[in-house]
Design a protein that fits this description.
It is a single chain. About 40% of the residues lie in helices and about 15% in strands. It is elongated, with a radius of gyration of 19 Å. By secondary structure, the chain is α+β, with helices and mostly antiparallel strands.
């Protein structure tokens, strides 16, 4: 294989723990024209970037130790550690909701505990099953165990109310997403979100 075909991914270091990772495995922050530190989850905003792990702990450490000042070589403005942590978490959650909205518009979502279980047992398996974090333990365990038996990835994320709002229906305990090109990206976003919250 030629050297051109072996492209190494750009790497950056976390401000807090100093561990070096692929840039895609970190959270990028940029400085606004007003000198405010802003999260740039899609890594599209212009300017110099500073990075932390996808971890609320690393982010809060970087803020408390004023490491963004050092990274941007100036006195920066930013929210409190809890404030910016909440902001980043909300942005990650919105990205997940966005993907689910796309899946719903494409007709790829099955919702409700019974229908999700039927879909898992069916011939055409879903690509991913999501169970609401506030669903009852009995329903959650039943769906997650059943998905595992059929080798289908499952995650506990969002709420019954979130699922219902996406679908324009009453709250739903679980949703199954049919196979499609965005399954891997959605799964990745969920992993990032749960990792940031310290759940993974």
């Amino acid at each position: 294989m030629s050297r051109q075909n072996v492209q190494e991914k750009p790497q950056r270091s976390c401000l807090a723990c100093r561990e070096t990772r692929d840039r895609d495995c970190l959270i990028r922050f940029v400085l606004s024209p007003e000198g405010e530190v802003l999260p740039d989850l899609e890594a599209r905003l212009p300017g110099r970037g500073a990075y932390t792990c996808i971890s609320s702990h690393c982010l809060q450490t970087a803020i408390k130790q004023h490491l963004f000042n050092r990274a941007f070589k100036c006195q920066v403005s930013m929210q409190s550690p809890d404030g910016i942590t909440t902001q980043v978490g909300n942005l990650m959650r919105e990205r997940i909701l966005g993907y689910l909205g796309l899946a719903n518009r494409a007709g790829k979502i099955i919702s409700g505990g019974s229908l999700v279980c039927d879909t898992i047992r069916g011939k055409i398996k879903p690509g991913l099953v999501l169970v609401a974090i506030n669903a009852s333990e009995s329903i959650s365990e039943k769906i997650i165990v059943l998905a595992g038996v059929h080798n289908i990835r499952s995650e506990r994320v969002l709420t019954k109310e979130d699922f219902g709002a996406i679908l324009g229906k009453a709250p739903r305990s679980a949703v199954a997403i049919r196979q499609g090109g965005f399954i891997a990206r959605l799964f990745g976003e969920i992993k990032r979100y749960r990792n940031f919250l310290g759940e993974v």
